[in-house]
Automatic annotation (TrEMBL):
Protein keywords: Amino-acid biosynthesis, Aminotransferase, Branched-chain amino acid biosynthesis, Pyridoxal phosphate, Transferase
Species of provenance: Membranihabitans marinus
Name of this chain's protein: Branched-chain-amino-acid aminotransferase
SUPFAM superfamilies with a match to the protein in the record: D-aminoacid aminotransferase-like PLP-dependent enzymes
Primary role: Acts on leucine, isoleucine and valine.
Listed NCBIfam families: ilvE_II, PRK13357.1
Protein's GO biological process: amino acid biosynthetic process; branched-chain amino acid biosynthetic process
Coiled coil: none
Record-listed E.C. numbers: 2.6.1.42
Associated pathway: Amino-acid biosynthesis; L-valine biosynthesis; L-valine from pyruvate: step 4/4; Amino-acid biosynthesis; L-leucine biosynthesis; L-leucine from 3-methyl-2-oxobutanoate: step 4/4; Amino-acid biosynthesis; L-isoleucine biosynthesis; L-isoleucine from 2-oxobutanoate: step 4/4
Amino acid sequence: MSVDVSNIKISPVSKSKIDTVDFDQIPFGRVFTDHIFQAQYKNGQWGDMEISPLEHFSLHPSNLALHYGQSIFEGMKASADKNGTPLLFRPEEHARRLNRSARRMCMPEFPEELFMEALTELVTLDRNWIPDRPGSALYIRPLMFATDEFLGVAPSETYTFVIMLLPVGPYYSKPVKLWADTEFVRAVAGGTGEAKTAGNYAASLLPSKMAKDRGCDQVLWLDGKERKYVQEVGTMNIFFVFEDHIATPELDGAILAGVTRNAFLTLLRAKGYDVQTRKITINEVMEKGQNGQLKEVFGSGTAAVATIVEEVRYKDEVIKFDPEAAEVGPMLKQTIEDIRHGRQEDLHDWVMRVE
Ligand SMILES: *Cc1c(COP(=O)(O)O)cnc(C)c1O
């Protein structure tokens, strides 16, 4: 595949809308920066790359992504050091995962070097939008979707790839209650659970709503075959702090391989914890939660970094955790935030400075 490198046309806005935003109260996912990166795929290659003012798309009603779901995305963050230099957290990992999702969904890959170039140009242009409040960040949302205008279940021959940026405040910071669902499943091995693709999230909406109706915040997904093994939560992977070790479910072909999950595993190992990736049954969780051998549960994901779990419900059983007593989750969150803002040494080479 030939690639048109270093050919991004930049058309800045004539007037930024940054002054209309209250950075102390940013509703998550609703405030966008001035610009968007766009690239078009046709005739087997990416081209028409530009950074321009964010505007609405115009789509034909037969747009293939709308009908058959060929759509993938990523979620990552930028922060700034004390001099205002933008810092990206593990951008290559996100570029690689985007391309793994693309392969699974029969979509073209977006070359990693082009991804990095587009990202750095865009973040540089909108760098004033990186919030400096604690816990705040610039959320980065790359998205690729099919654009063929044709009603047929077949891979599209044309695609649009965009990157949009959203300033966000502290997210999901309150402890959550989880509903271990025995009826619905998120994904099965062989399905699309490993891909960050639109349909996975559509499929989760009804079970999530039902969990909320039962007084929980999110679904704790169990495996699709036996409803026995714990998989993950909404847009987070999950960690269990047992008495003598820490565990997270092993990647089983259905679980999304979180970049934060991977960072947590690395940090915990570097700090000398016994960390295991293994099969974890919901019965083990409930039993050890009851008898005190399970000390703490938390989720990992880009948006909230670590989210403390205060309750897990499974059938008629409930286990509860005192959020104030959580140690490992908050420690990991603090470590990642410190590395991300340049306050702690980046021993694992995770942060990319955008000069
Ligand atoms: C994005 C996502 C995660 C977390 O991945 P990170 O790379 O850590 O943000 C976990 N599970 C699902 C289903 C996700 O979509």
